[in-house]
Amino acid sequence: MLEEYKIDKIRETNPWKYVVLGIIIMMCLGTVYSWSIFRSPIETLFGVSTVQSGMPYMFSLAFYAFSMLVSGKYIDRFSPKSMMSVGGLLVGIGWFASGFATNIYMLTLTYGIIIGIGVGIIYGVPISVVAKWFPSKKGLVVGLVLTGFGLSPFITAPAAKALIEGFGVLNAFKLLGLIFAIIIPMLSWFIKPPEKPLIMVKLSHEDESTTTQDMIKLKSFKSLYICFVLGTMIGLTIIGMTNSIGVDLIGLSAITAPLFVSVFAVFNGVGRPLFGWLTDKLSYKKVMLLSFSLILSSAVLMLFANDGSVLIYAISFSIFWMNLGGWLAIAPTSTLLLYGSTNYSQNYGVVFTAYGIGAIAGVYVSGLLFDYFNHHNAIFYFIISLCVIGIVLSQSMPKE
Questions:
Q1: pLDDT by residue (tens digit) across 198-224?
Q2: 169: part of which helix (H) or strand (E)?
Q3: Which domains does the chain have, with CATH numbers?
Q4: Is 268 within 8 Å of 236 (Cβ atoms)?
Q5: Which runs of consecutive H residues, i.e. helices, occur in 303-400?
Q6: Helices (H), the chain
Q7: Using CA atoms, how far apart are residues 299 and 296, in angstroms rounded to an integer?
Q8: 113-152: per-residue pLDDT in tens?
């Protein structure tokens, strides 16, 4: 339920600087989305299968999601500087230690678990800070900060490719670790919440908000949760295989494929404010239907792709990446619309665990399918089936 507020603004010469700093930090964290650039070199270096090469990426996303649930309880207890410094050091250590990995399991520990926990500790902090500086523009500024995470591969994918080609994949991990261990804690020193909270005096009726304990009992929560799992399963599966599909199926060169990843990252970033705005303007059920329908159409289109089908690849994967960004706006906006704002942080912390489940299930199952059938069409049939389930489930959601 939307509320009208009278806002007593406090002075800050330029609070938008916190939005900019948040975007930069999120771009560092979002380098995890560039895993497809590392995947082929890792498969060659360690001699592992598609399922095994997806393990570091899968674990990183899962631990990021679940550690965010835990860290969200401490955002208001510790300073942003403290939390982001600790998280930034963990991210840097994870990347740097990945450069010493001797097998896929050690890499899963360093890249997957350590980096994932570091990202989860930081993720909610800049979002929380900018929301406090702009209480009347929360949706806008939070969307802008999250755009940094989605847009990250636009810069980090070609940068990672250049580092791999110039220094080797393990040394690329070490260099990125050093960079992140310096940049993230350093920027965190300049991010701070308002010294006094912005006073928000409600002018209309009381906020109707559902507690987390009550929320998880509702049928609408179960439907939203499963739809979010499906949306992230699809998106994270595709992101993890974008580079390899471009090279192996479409016939792109090892130089050109990362450039496409960078372009797709723009759509991932744009998808967040776009689908957030659509959810506000339409309804969550209509936007979920739109998202699953777009993904389904793109997966069907990819069934006709072969060597040289660059246009089909560009259109389909732009839509895939845009919709992953879209679900990271649909889910929080739907949580707010369905269950109110008072318990939003705790409620969305629970909903966001669906992201971790989607990461594990999507990457693992898609890897198994590709290893068994040895053809990318198996992945697209898998995505089509998930979309059909998502369409049916989302349109039968009760409005509670």
A1: 544 443 444 467 888 899 999 999 999
A2: helix 169-188
A3: 5-199 (1.20.1250.20), 208-395 (1.20.1250.20)
A4: no
A5: 310-339, 344-351, 353-373, 377-395
A6: 16-29, 35-46, 50-53, 55-71, 80-98, 104-107, 115-133, 138-167, 169-188, 212-215, 219-248, 256-281, 284-302, 310-339, 344-351, 353-373, 377-395
A7: 5
A8: 999 999 988 887 887 788 778 776 666 677 788 888 878 8
